[in-house]
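1st attempt posting a full record on here, be nice pls
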Amino acid sequence: MMLYEQIQEAVAYIRRQTDFPARTAIVLGTGLGNLTDDLRIVAEIAYPDIPHFARSTVQSHKGKLIFGYLAEHPVVVMAGRFHWYEGWSMEQVTFPIRVLKFLGVQQLFITNVSGGVNPHFRTGDLVVVKDHINLLPENPLRGTNDERLGPRFPDMLHTYDETLRQKALEIAQKNQIRAFEGVYSALPGPNLETPAEYTMLRTLGSDCTGMSSIPEVLVARHMSLPVLMISLVSNVAYPRSAIRETTVEEVIATAEAAEPKMRLLIREMLAYL
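the predicted structure (as C-alpha cells):
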C-alpha cells in the first residue's frame, strides 16, 4: 500500500473514533507528558489501534493520541513520539505528522529535551528553535515523491515560523522564564554524545542537541505546516569541563521539574492563537 493510502486509512480510522476539529497538534517529548493533565479531554486513541502507527517504546512516552481543549483551544496531542534509534524507519517516525496534517491541523508545536552546547545555557532553560542542523543518516523525504503530500525539493528557509517564535519569546519574557532562540542539532543516538561530538556541534553552530524532532519538522515543511519547536535543556554539555555523566532517569527528572514552564508557555501560545 502506498504512503498516501496508508495515511487515508489512518485518518479514516481516527475519524470513526472522533470528529473533534483540532486546530493545533502538539508533540510531547521525554519527561513532558504531564501537559496532558491540563487538557479537557474529548477522546484518546492508543497508537497500536491506529492503522500503520508504530509503538512508542521510550520511558515517559504514553503512546496515544489525545484530543481535547487546552486554554479553550482545540488540540490533538501526541503523548509520545517515535525515534529512529528505536528501530523504526523514517517513514514510520514521521507518519503521525502526515496523519495530523490530513486531520486538518493548522500548526505543529514540537517539544523535546536536549543537551545544551551553548555555554550560556543552564539546565532547565527553554530554547525556541530558529533553525536546525540535521546530522541524522536518513531523510523521511527520500524515495519517490508523491505530489499529493508535498514538493520534491521543499525549501527550508522559513521552516520555523517567525511569528510563533517571537510570540513564544515574548510570553517567556513576560513570565520571567529563561528562554533563548537557538539552533537545534540531531544525532542518531541512543547513546549520548561524546565530549568531542559536543565540541563539534558547538563549532558547527549548534546551541542544543538531541535525537529527534528534525524528521518531523522535515515532513511538516514538506506539507507546508507551520512549526514551533521548543527544546528544554536537560543537561549542560559544553564546555567539556561542564559535562557530567547523565542517565535517562536524570533527564526525565530534569524535564519534569522544568515542565511547568513549558506547560505555561504552550497554554499562553494557544490562548494567543
